[in-house]
Design brief:
about 775 residues; alpha/beta; five-stranded parallel β-sheet; about 30% helix; binds beta-D-glucopyranose
Length: about 775
């Protein structure tokens, strides 16, 4: 097979213009070793001081889980005695300095502490929640928002973030899907590397960068039924082929730390897993950072029923490879004695402490323990205009246009009156999302505010909330209360809808319906919102639905009836401005779904890269194939899907050859044309299917993508290189390797609309 000749310069220019290039593996300086300094410090330490380095406490006022830890006074005493290696949830220069001072001024060896915090999608400036940002498919942008979050958090004293979460998330019922980059291992890996490179930069000792964490190791995204904190039952091949790839990429590219998971896999809690933490992570992948437990996950080994008491839990966790204890007290209380009794070796303690000290040297904390404690910098950087601008740009690119019948979007200038309806339309809190760090309550720009900022003065805007749907839920201690009864204001909203040209309905989930501890059995619009949508639709069907949510939702009724739907997730501080600009056509939406949207929550987990099974659908009239009888097959919106205000047409794929050998490559080429009237961006996705292999393989797997810009009428020719690494997987030989055979290649705008070609890979 051949493809038309392209001018070399043209190809080079094209390559340079892609905003989402594959992130290159780079040996991040985070993996630098300070062995000499670490060893000499270790030699001076008593066993008690060594164990102290393995202890992490929360600043007691800010709990992110059940509280089992000591009171603040005791914690301070322990810090002063050199018995605490790290604090979490201590934020602001003032508080960090005060705590660090205790370690530096009072303790014998003056070892500085690490200050960790959940900087998940920002510190005080909120960027889109990770699931939303993944929808931008713009790796450069995701790196920039991590860089900016690091700049902001380090200005406030923090030097370690518990991010990125790289749990592959196939189940929309799981609340923490909002914290992930979705269901695909390749996309997750690319996003994970971009995030790590953003947080850690090239040099961890730079005071604007921070240590990152790969979490939760491993399997948390596969908890049964998406039910928070539950068990994971997956096999060895699924573990290696689906769950581990992003973790492995972070480990070998120098992520500073790993965090294990609350869940148990096939009977072994992750925190107790020697296989995961020691054999795979430390020995096989050569990870030289340290592993922190999840919040009290060592203590929870008792609840899991694998430890008799807290001492037993400490023994199991440390021997499995867990280096630092977040908040359970088990290490602080029992490790010294466990070593004295010969149940834990001092060698293991030395290994854990060396790893922790090494990270402190990397950060440069021994040179200046207060390097993140500059109040002037804190005032200048936190919530700065520069950060707000980036939050706005990231929000714009994260929006996904799901439906746009008759091009009702963007809103035409001649629309004279708009009814803005819905419980989230003037909500300044929900867009901040879950894991909102130190964001100020109600600090996001609401859709109402955004529209007021951007609409021409000639357009009349009338707002009505329609229904109150939620109260509470902001902390782990206050359950959500959903209004299921009071529909008294719906009629007022209906009247307003009747009297306006255009309706914009802003509905969805509150920020505290997704996130940790927020699994849902029903993922349709909560409370009386369904009733609101239907009532308004009967009065005026000319509706644009703006959806705010942290997970894929079942919006089947709306998808059948409402002419336009915009997926806006929880977009962060600048949400309303970005949404208004997309509604009004000042920005042409370019996001694509990083997760499948189901038709019905009972279909979950629903994901595009499933297996073929022994009984795929062969004949429309048969019932004996893998499916449900009572729901239409397949997704409501597939993985990779997203519309634009323009349209794109794909040519056929041409390959420079139809087979390749080890060490070789195939070049696939495809033309993409902007066939609409305005410029736009398209995420061109490449999938591969391994037709016959030693184990069952997915029906397609994402292997590459490029986000390109095209002017109206413009055609670009894209080239993709396919090499052996794109077809490798964890085979029946329990090795990551390739197998010869025939492969199907697919390129297109989403996982269900693809051009195809085929090629062979041969080994002889
Ligand atoms: C979460 C972690 C988080 C930790 C510290 C836990 O409940 O699972 O992801 O980093 O709390 O806040």
């Amino acid at each position: 097979m051949t493809f038309p000749k392209l001018h070399l310069v043209h190809i080079l220019l094209l390559i340079l213009s892609f905003s989402t290039m594959k992130v290159k593996s780079q040996n991040n300086k985070a993996s630098k070793n300070h062995k000499h300094q670490v060893d000499s410090l270790l030699n001076k330490m008593t066993l008690k001081e060594k164990v102290g380095q393995m202890v992490q406490y929360s600043g007691g006022w800010d709990l992110t889980g059940p509280a089992k830890s000591k009171n603040n006074k005791l914690k301070k005493e322990q810090i002063s005695n050199g018995l605490v290696g790290s604090m979490l949830n201590v934020t602001s220069v003032e508080q960090v300095r005060e705590a660090q001072k205790l370690a530096i001024k009072k303790s014998r060896l003056k070892i500085p502490m690490l200050f960790g915090y959940d900087v998940i999608h920002g510190y005080q400036t909120m960027f889109p929640v990770p699931l939303a940002e993944a929808a931008s498919w713009n790796l450069e942008l995701m790196k920039k928002t991590a860089e900016a979050s690091a700049e902001e958090a380090t200005a406030a004293g923090i030097n370690w973030t518990f991010a990125p979460m790289v749990d592959i998330s196939q189940d929309a019922r799981w609340g923490r899907i909002m914290e992930s980059a979705g269901e695909d291992p390749y996309l997750n890996t690319q996003v994970a590397l971009a995030k790590m490179n953003g947080y850690q930069g090239d040099d961890l000792s730079d005071p604007q960068t921070m240590a990152a964490t790969a979490k939760h190791f491993a399997g948390y995204g596969f908890i049964i039924g998406g039910r928070e904190y539950n068990s994971v039952n997956i096999g060895e091949f699924e573990l290696h082929n689906t769950i581990l790839p992003p973790f492995k990429a972070l480990a070998i590219n120098g992520v500073a730390t790993f965090m294990n998971s609350f869940s148990d896999m096939d009977g072994i809690p992750a925190t107790a897993s020697h296989r995961l933490q020691t054999e795979i992570l430390k020995e096989k992948w050569g990870f030289n950072g340290f592993i922190v437990s999840d919040w009290d996950s060592i203590g929870e080994l008792e609840e899991h029923g694998v430890a008799e008491n807290s001492a037993d839990a400490a023994r199991i966790a440390v021997n499995a490879g867990n280096d630092m204890d977040m908040q359970s007290n088990a290490y602080a209380e029992h490790l010294v004695k466990l070593v004295q009794d010969g149940k834990v070796s001092e060698k293991r303690i030395n290994d854990a402490v060396s790893r922790i000290l090494n990270q402190k040297f990397q950060l440069g904390l021994f040179d200046d323990p207060y390097k993140y404690c500059d109040t002037t910098r804190e005032q200048e950087v936190v919530y700065s205009k520069k950060l707000q601008k980036l939050a706005y740009e990231a929000a714009l690119e994260s929006i996904v246009l799901l439906k746009n019948d008759d091009q009702i979007l963007p809103i035409a200038n001649e629309k004279k009156s708009i009814a803005l309806i819905g419980p989230l339309a003037d909500d300044k809190n929900t867009p901040l999302g879950n894991w909102r760090g130190r964001a100020k309550k109600n600090s996001a720009v609401s859709v109402l505010e955004g529209l007021k900022n951007k609409l021409p003065k000639t357009t009349e805007l009338t707002y009505h909330k329609g229904v109150d749907f939620i109260k509470g839920g902001e902390s782990f201690m206050t359950p959500l209360q959903i209004n299921q009864k009071d529909d008294s204001k719906i009629q007022e909203a209906v009247e307003i809808a009747k009297n306006n040209d255009q309706v914009i309905l802003v509905v969805g989930e509150s920020a505290f319906q997704s996130g940790e501890g927020r699994s849902q059995a029903d993922i349709s619009l909560p409370g009386l919102q369904k009733q609101l949508v239907k009532s308004v639709y009967q009065a005026n069907p000319n509706i644009i639905m703006v959806l705010m949510n942290g997970r894929p939702m079942d919006i089947s009724w709306s998808a059948d009836h409402i002419p336009a739907i915009l997926e806006t997730w929880h977009l962060g501080s600048q949400a309303g401005n970005a949404i208004a600009d997309v509604l009004l056509g000042n920005y042409n939406p370019s996001g694509k779904l990083p997760v499948t949207f189901p038709r019905n929550s009972a279909q979950e987990p629903l994901y595009y890269n499933h297996k073929n099974t022994g009984r795929p659908k062969a004949n429309a009239n048969e019932v004996i194939y893998s499916h449900y009888n009572d729901v239409k097959d397949g997704p409501l919106f597939p993985f990779g899907f997203g519309l634009s205000y323009t349209s794109f047409e794909y040519g056929d794929i041409s390959l420079n050859k139809d087979s390749f050998f080890k060490g070789g490559e195939i070049i696939a080429e495809i033309n993409i044309t902007n066939t609409g009237k305005r410029k736009g961006e398209e995420v061109v996705q490449l999938y591969i299917r391994d037709l016959v292999a030693s184990i069952t393989r997915p029906v397609k797997e994402l292997k590459d993508f490029k986000k390109i810009k095209l002017n109206a009428g413009e055609t670009k020719t894209l080239q993709f290189s396919i090499t052996e690494k794109d077809i490798e997987f964890y085979t029946i030989n329990r090795k990551w390797e390739s197998e010869p055979g025939e492969f199907k290649l697919m390129i297109g705008g989403h996982s269900k609309d693809l051009k195809t070609a085929s090629f062979n890979f041969t080994t002889d």
